[in-house]
Specification:
- The chain is an alpha+beta fold and 259 residues long.
- The protein has 2 domains: 200 residues, 2-Layer Sandwich (BirA Bifunctional Protein, domain 2); 44 residues, Roll (SH3 type barrels).
- It has 6 helices and 12 strands.
- The strands form 2 sheets. A 7-stranded mixed sheet has the order 1-2-3-7-6-5-4, sandwiched between helices. A 5-stranded antiparallel sheet has the order 11-10-9-8-12, with no helix packed on it.
- Helix 2 links the parallel strand 1 and strand 2.
- Helix 3 packs antiparallel against helix 5 and helix 3 packs across helix 6.
- The mean pLDDT is 94.
- The structure holds biotinyl-5-AMP.
Length: 259
């Protein structure tokens, strides 16, 4: 077991970012970093404020699903105030930041699964949740939530689905979460600041989606779709080619099968 404690000071120290992680709020244990981040954002927390926890007792995924983050995982939320045009790009920034940081710290190669999963060797190692408050064209705040299975022996957590993996299970050794979170914050900032200069983040995200070119089954709300996942649009939606040859744009959904 490597010494793996997190603290506000160890995360912030010499981070070298302009604004992400200048303020870090660390909890050993809390219900959900999203909740605290939302309260902070409503009170006008400075952009780039990070809420991080060793363990969440009520971590959440999309659509009120549960995200399990026992001790050994990394759970964090980052508060941003982007313009409305950049909201669809936040999932791309977060996914690529996670993939780059995992690569830099462990050497493992990640794949991205539309819309919000990061996989290693085909299994989910990290999940991303973006929550916004928008009024008309005005963004009150946006929060990027990231959960990574870092040092978890998944055999000890039967409640986490068998489609999951952890960095330590893949590597056969533990990983320093401090290294991972510091890389993540630097990468989130770098990719976020690159957004105004064009489509490079979108292109890299698209090019790393393992979902594309595959026959998929997608659940979106009450609707089920089948077809070839042809591409993604720059707003993050999936372009699906059903057998009838038409093109369907799916804004949000779940890939339930991928052949
Ligand atoms: C996600 O949702 O993948 C987004 C997860 C975001 C978690 C972060 S942690 C920091 C911040 N604070 C929070 O409270 N949340 C964010 P979704 O695509 O809906 O996937 C949820 C599904 O993943 C669940 O229904 C389970 O099937 C599965 N799952 C739950 N825990 C998992 C884990 N630790 N590893 C892999 N899969 C898991």
């Amino acid at each position: 077991m490597v010494a793996d404690s997190l603290s506000t000071a160890s995360i912030i120290g010499n981070l070298g970012t302009r604004f992400i992680g200048k303020r870090v709020i660390y909890y050993p244990n809390l219900p959900s970093t999203m909740e605290i981040a939302r309260q902070e954002a409503r009170q006008g927390a400075v952009a780039g404020t990070v809420v991080v926890a060793d363990e969440q007792t009520a971590g959440r995924g999309r659509l009120k699903r549960v995200w399990l983050s026992p001790e050994g995982s990394l759970a964090l939320s980052v508060i941003l105030y982007p313009s409305v045009a950049y909201l669809p790009s936040l999932i791309m920034v977060a996914s690529l930041a996670v993939a780059h940081s995992i690569g830099a710290v462990t050497g493992l190669k990640s794949q991205l699964k539309w819309p919000n999963d990061v996989l290693v060797n085909g299994r989910k190692v990290a999940g991303i949740l973006i929550e916004n408050s928008v009024r008309g064209n005005m963004v009150d705040y946006a929060i990027i939530g990231i959960g990574v299975n870092v040092n978890l022996r998944l055999a000890d957590f039967p409640e986490i689905p068998p489609t999951a993996t952890s960095l330590s299970d893949e590597l056969g050794r533990d990983v320093l979460r401090l290294d991972l979170i510091r890389h993540l914050l630097v990468e989130i900032e770098r990719l976020y600041l690159a957004l105004p200069s064009g489509g490079s983040v979108y292109q890299e995200w698209r090019d790393n989606l393992v979902t594309l070119g595959r026959e998929v089954h997608i659940k979106s709300g009450e609707n089920d779709y089948e077809g070839t996942a042809e591409s993604v649009a720059s707003d993050g939606s999936l372009l699906l080619r059903p057998p009838d040859g038409s093109l369907t744009k799916i804004v949000a959904g779940e890939v339930t099968r991928c052949d």
